[in-house]
Amino acid sequence: MAPPVTVDGLLRSAEQWLGAEGARYATDSPRLDAEFLLADVLCVSRAELLACLREPVSSDAQRSFAVVLRRRADGESVAYIVGTVPFLDVTLSVGPGVLVPRPETEALAQWAIARCRLRGEARPLRVLDVGTGSGALAVAIAHSVPYASVVATDIAEAAIQRARSNARSCDVAARVQVVHADLVPSTAEPFDIVVANLPYVGLAEASQVDPGVMRHEPLDALFADEDGLAQIRRLLSRLPQHMAAGADVGLEIGWHQGLAVLAMTRSVFGTNAVRLERDLAGHDRLVLAENVGGAGTSDGATVTSRRPLSWTPSPAGCGPQRPDAVRDR
After folding, report:
1. Which fold does the domain 7-74 belong to in CATH?
2. 93-305: what fold?
3. Which end of the chain is more exposed for a tag (fewer CB within 10 A), N or C?
4. Residue ranges per domain, the chain?
5. pLDDT class for 107, splitting at 50, 70, 90?
6. What is the mean pLDDT of residues 47-58?
7. Rounded distance, CA 261 to CA 17, Å?
8. Neighbours of 310 (CB within 10 A)
9. Where are the alpha helices (DSSP H) in the chain?
10. Fold agreement between 7-74 and 93-305
11. pLDDT digits (tens, 9 = 90+) for 175-204
């Protein structure tokens, strides 16, 4: 009689198979991916899974695990397969039609949350999340800042429905309004804080995008013309009339776009309160304009680049680890 298949044995074979042998798109983190997937199949946490490595796995569970492994080997992200991804202090539902929120985007959320808290509760606080996708930024900000009211925009119906669902499941639907709009909504009320994680991968970079992302995630949420800057240009041209005096703007950008987006932001706001932030890998990642718009705008432009951003990434294995999904940067 053959010995029972244990959790440890199943993970070991899955790690080897995902890493090279059977995967159409080999993953950089085969063991971690296998752990998240098996934990989901067994309806336990990853910590609980690792505490019972010697326990046998039923035949039904083995078959279910084989199915999800084949999906992962075909390039589908762990987040799509399990249906959720952690983002700061919330858990978001994800699936076809929306990009998987990347750990780098958590830095933009943390910046916005800090700016909200700096303003305090003296008056109602209005936040705009442009191109919300899954609603990650809008939901995380509303969850952490209970006195903030967030308007989230998108043009994709799948994204709008997913963002609304995430707002409901995270108990912030009363303060997160998800609307169909091309970048900026038609509203008379100005915004205090604007965040945007728009498509910023250039068509010229298509060969560098992770093949699994190209196969499974929405490409219109990734690409923006040849240089990747088309949507950012459009947004910056429209923003000033929708911003309150002394407003803040945070833009997520591609790894090589820092100088170009700094110049564009400077030309719009004419301010010295614009800076470039780099991620932990040293890549350009955010352009931040603070205390701009209305009476907050000042003349003269001195751009500074500060120390790299510091934040705690979401657990690995929940999709590609860069928001632009471009490899080897």
Report:
1. Helicase, Ruva Protein; domain 3 (1.10.8)
2. Rossmann fold (3.40.50)
3. N
4. 7-74, 93-305
5. very high
6. 95
7. 42
8. 9
9. 7-16, 30-42, 46-50, 59-73, 78-82, 103-119, 136-144, 157-169, 211-216, 230-238, 258-269
10. no
11. 999 999 999 998 879 999 999 999 877 777
